[in-house]
């Protein structure tokens, strides 16, 4: 589909690395992760991060050098191994999809949250000004939720994103910025398509009955139904290739408007039968590749990943003391 292909961004392919993902994270990036990702032929890492790791306790306006230095190290490791580094706020001031902590304010409705959000991104813009966008991008906030949830509307989201983009642009006019879609990355934002140098990011987590089978943090999946492919359920309806095509059609339409599109996360949890994961994921990757859309698996090491995923139905290969899912890795390397 050359007339529909995404042409703004490179078709970056890689993984999410989680060393600064939650309030309890240490920020101890593993150099081997960067090395192996590059050695296996990938070129992209997304770093979902929690802003409390670089702020004073209960003071989102006081940023601490010790925490920011950990981000610096990840940026340097990306440079060392030739990987594009995408910095993401998985927990931004006033919003996170992760319910481990109650935010003191609301990014969509409170000016103080927006002020803190812009301050944090301006701080990183100053810190990394001069690093080309071919090497570094800013993915402003992970997975804004469902419309109507927590005061979120398209209009409020648009206002927050435009304010943050302008704040970054005042310091670094050239920085590539990526905005996640609404409804947890499912819905593109055509109302933001006019922003120069701003791409958007989709997800590869549907059907949820396949990707989040037995995931204890998800309440909408019937864990009594072992997923198959095709045929896994999403909101009670069986899915196959037609539904996958329909999921990505609005994103391909956005790309046709000249907006860069990338798939910032996707994958399936450790309890989904491995053969089902591979069949489903190959169809997703075929659709994305045909549209020239890159992707980042969630995650690298862990229950969705190629290393140490803890699946019961995989013949793992020893990889420097880690359990390597060679079949999943080979699939990713083909796309």
Write a concise keyword list for the protein shown above.
single chain, TIM Barrel, 15 strands, 335 residues, alpha/beta, eight-stranded parallel barrel, 19% strand
Q: How would you summarize what this structure contains?
A:
This protein is an alpha/beta fold. 33% of the residues lie in helices and 19% in strands. The protein has a single domain (2-205, 248-334), classed as TIM Barrel (Alpha-Beta Barrel).
Structural class: alpha/beta
- Secondary-structure arrangement, i.e. CATH architecture: Alpha-Beta Barrel
CATH class: Alpha Beta
| SS strand fraction | 15-25%
For the largest beta-sheet, the strand count, sense and barrel status come to: 8 strands, parallel, barrel
What is the fold-level CATH name, i.e. the topology? Answer: TIM Barrel
Q: What best-fitting shape do the alpha-carbon axes yield?
A: globular
C-alpha Rg (nearest Å)? 19 Å
Low-confidence stretches: none
CATH superfamily: Glycosidases
The CA-CA distance between the termini, in Å, is 16 Å
Structure report:
The chain is of the alpha/beta class. The chain has a single domain, classed as Glycosidases (TIM Barrel). It contains nine helices and 15 strands. It has helices spanning 31-39, 65-80, 111-128, 154-169, 182-185, 208-211, 241-256, 274-290, 326-334; strands spanning 13-16, 44-50, 55-56, 59-63, 84-92, 95-96, 136-139, 176-180, 198-204, 233-234, 237-238, 261-266, 294-297, 317-319, 322-324. The strands form four sheets. Strands 1-2-5-7-8-9-12-13 form an eight-stranded parallel beta barrel, surrounded by five helices. Strands 3-4 form a two-stranded antiparallel ribbon. Helix 3 runs parallel beside helix 4 and helix 7 (241-256) packs parallel to helix 8. The longest helix has 18 residues, at 111-128. The two termini are 16 Å apart. The model has no long low-confidence stretch (mean pLDDT 97).
């Amino acid at each position: 589909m050359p007339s529909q292909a995404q042409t703004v961004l490179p078709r970056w392919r890689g993984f999410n690395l989680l060393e600064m993902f939650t309030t309890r994270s240490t920020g101890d990036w593993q150099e081997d992760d960067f090395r192996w990702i590059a050695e296996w032929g990938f070129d992209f890492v997304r770093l979902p991060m929690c802003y409390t790791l670089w702020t004073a306790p209960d003071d989102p306006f006081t940023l601490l050098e010790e925490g920011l230095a950990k981000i610096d190290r990840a940026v340097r490791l990306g440079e060392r191994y030739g990987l594009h580094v995408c910095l993401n706020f998985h927990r931004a001031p006033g919003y996170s999809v992760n319910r481990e902590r109650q935010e003191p304010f609301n990014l969509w409705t409170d000016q103080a949250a927006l002020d803190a959000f812009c301050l944090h991104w301006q701080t990183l813009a100053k810190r990394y000004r001069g690093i080309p966008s071919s090497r570094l991008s800013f993915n402003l906030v992970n997975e804004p939720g469902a419309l109507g949830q927590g005061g979120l509307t398209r209009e409020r989201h648009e206002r927050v994103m435009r304010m943050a983009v302008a704040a970054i642009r005042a310091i670094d006019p050239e920085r590539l910025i990526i905005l996640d879609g609404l409804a947890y990355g499912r819905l593109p934002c055509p109302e933001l398509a006019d922003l120069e140098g701003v791409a958007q990011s989709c997800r590869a987590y549907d059907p949820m009955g396949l990707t989040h089978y037995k995931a204890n943090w998800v309440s909408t999946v019937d864990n009594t139904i072992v997923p198959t492919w095709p045929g896994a359920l999403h909101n009670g309806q069986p899915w196959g290739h037609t539904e996958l095509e329909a999921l990505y059609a609005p994103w391909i339409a956005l790309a046709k408007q000249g907006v860069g599109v990338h798939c910032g996360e996707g994958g399936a949890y450790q309890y989904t039968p491995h053969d089902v994961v591979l069949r489903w994921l190959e169809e997703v990757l075929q659709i994305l590749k045909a549209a020239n859309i890159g992707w980042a698996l969630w995650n690298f090491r862990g229950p969705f990943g190629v290393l140490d995923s803890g699946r019961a139905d995989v013949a793992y290969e020893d990889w420097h003391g880690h359990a390597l899912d060679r079949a999943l890795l080979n699939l990713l390397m083909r796309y």
